[in-house]
Amino acid sequence: MPWLSRPDRLADVAPGWLVEAVRPASARPDWGPMLRMAASVAVPLVVALFAGQLMRGLLPAMGGMAAGLADRGGSYRARLIRVSSAGAGGATGYVVGHALREAGWWAVAGVALVSVVAALVSTAGDAGSIGTLQLLVMTVIAQGVPFPESGAYGALAYLAGALWALALALAGWPFRPRAPEAAAVTGVYRALAELAEDPGAPGGPAAFDDAIKRAYEVVFGARSAASGPDAERTHLVALLNQAAQIRHALVSLAQEGRDPPPEVVDAARALAAAVGRERRPPGLRLEPSSPALAALCSAVNGAAELVGAEARGDLEAGEPPYEPMGRAARLAAVWRRVWSGPLTRVYTARLTLCMGAAAALNELHWLERSYWTTLTVALVLKPDFGSVFARAVQRGLGTVAGAVIGTVILSVVPYGPAILAPIAVFAALLPYGRQRNWGLMSTFQVPLVVLLVDLLTGGGPRLAEVRLVDTLAGCGIVLLLGYLPWPASWHAPVRPRFADAVSAIARYVRHAFDPAHPGRTALRREAFDALADLRTVFQRAVTEPAVVSRRVTTWMAPMTALEQVADATAATVARTEHGAPTPSPESVREAARSLDGIAGAVREGRPVRGPGPVTEGPLERVNRAVCGLRETLSGHE
């Protein structure tokens, strides 16, 4: 039941360079982020309008827009860190850009130096990536746009807008501090209910795996700031662990060729409704006729008891096993990510070269507002936004559409306060565009930026035409200097991620049948997280040009076979815990060794030997899945 056989998923990535969908095509608008973004951008402008100084609201509006884009959901703690990083990075960038405004050709060296710093720091993590993006963006904008504010005053104005957006993002924290984590867990149980209703739907288990991976990240991200035991978050982790047990029991039942009884489907729906409302759902009273059905009933009843325990408030004390890491160890890990690895050095060189070329073009005055060219380079070359090629093409197409829209609006709406209405509309549409793909986001972002700049310069409809030319020039620089000369950028890292996923599953198999092993749950989670990461890398890789994506699509069959290994292992564990025979330790070690051998061969580019005979016994389904993986890889080039 792999996700790769799901037609709508494949439609999302074909043609990949045109869509590069971040979420399924059925994703609906999330009105909360849209309304917050509109308020983040429009309110500073409205306040400045009533104060009689409309242009003074431009920098706070830009700070609010940057902070709003940095708010990508998750726990309140994670949102606080990301939004604060965006505000601090943008304010620093304004100071640097303001200092480089009249520096002439020295500005090229200054932009290149900022690019080196941004490239290195962006590898430190999510917050570093977001902060350095705004550092680059505001350095370029402050250098090219004639803001009346001084460096210090402009930075404070930008920070004020970011703080306003931060206040909107965290408004619910005092009232429901666990709301994001609870919402993530509720989403997992909804996905579980869909899986129970149609267990044979292609992509069902994978969709659940993606949902539970995000939920674990939200809950663990919030937990990392807690100073001591936190019963509520411990309870949420227990609910996620129980949801995984139900998922594996459903897969086990499907492997027996049986659909869940109607009572199980009703119980799954009741669980999904009860988790969000903190009320106890009814349990299951079925006579299990097989180990798989016994595992399923036990897992569903366990989840019902957990929800009921929260509703009654009789939670047991205790914490899930977290591996403690001191501040010094965390800083050392960040330092290793920043300075180690050829990919960091290559990305730094690519970004510095392209930003320097765009800054030099700015000094040649060949383009009317060439700072937009430099800005485009910074946005397209971000390392964690997916394919550079796809972003460059989508940015160009989105800019064409956005420029047409901006021209129409500037032609129809008179200069002045009336322009605030379309600004609020396009600001609200930005989160939805980001949710779908880079091209749609550019379509909404271009007219928004054009309208904001028009408040300062009064350039009129011609601004959109200028923005189009400069943006296309930036896309050209990225493709000619940041993509084509770097053969390493043509190869998507599917092979190493595939090998990493095989290794993670091998570690899980080695300890999956040992109930006394303390890290068994964590190993299972790491295995399915590795599969989810592999799917993300694959989906981004197929958005490269055909010469690259054709090679990448050959990994579809091995990925399907690898998912079957993970499913067979988890399903066999569920059966053995409810009456089925337990496999011998030697057969388990042999299966794990076989997977380790496959991972080593894939990582080193060696051919994988064909499958041997399938060993019968309790581990037969796992052995068949491993042999199927070997057979698929033996014919894979």
SSE diagram, text form:
Blueprint: H1 7-12, H2 16-19, H3 31-50, H4 58-70, H5 76-99, H6 106-122, H7 126-144, H8 151-169, H9 179-197, H10 204-223, H11 231-255, H12 262-277, H13 291-312, H14 327-339, H15 342-364, H16 371-380, H17 388-412, H18 420-436, H19 438-457, H20 462-481, H21 494-512, H22 520-541, H23 546-552, H24 556-576, H25 585-604, H26 620-634
Helix pairs in contact: 3-4, 3-8, 3-18, 4-5, 4-8, 5-7, 5-8, 6-7, 6-15, 7-16, 9-10, 9-11, 9-12, 10-11, 10-22, 11-13, 11-24, 12-13, 13-24, 15-16, 15-20, 16-20, 17-19, 17-20, 18-19, 21-22, 21-24, 21-25, 22-24, 24-26, 25-26
H and E string: HHHHHHHHHHHHHHHHHHHHHHHHHH
Oligomer: single chain
Helix/strand/pairing category: mainly alpha
The description of the largest β-sheet is: none
Number of helices: 26
CA-CA gap between termini: 24 Å
Rg, Å, rounded: 26 Å
Number of strands: 0
Quick check: average pLDDT? 78
How many domain units? 3
Percent range of helical residues: over 70%
Report the principal-axis shape: globular
Task: Indicate the proportion of strand residues.
Answer: under 5%
Low-confidence stretches: 1-26, 224-229, 311-325
Explain how this protein is built.
- By secondary structure, the chain is mainly alpha-helical.
- It contains 26 helices and no strands.
- It is globular.
- The chain has helices at 7-12, 16-19, 31-50, 58-70, 76-99, 106-122, 126-144, 151-169, 179-197, 204-223, 231-255, 262-277, 291-312, 327-339, 342-364, 371-380, 388-412, 420-436, 438-457, 462-481, 494-512, 520-541, 546-552, 556-576, 585-604, 620-634.
- The protein folds into three domains: 3-173 and 341-489, no CATH class; 179-312, no CATH class; 491-634, no CATH class.
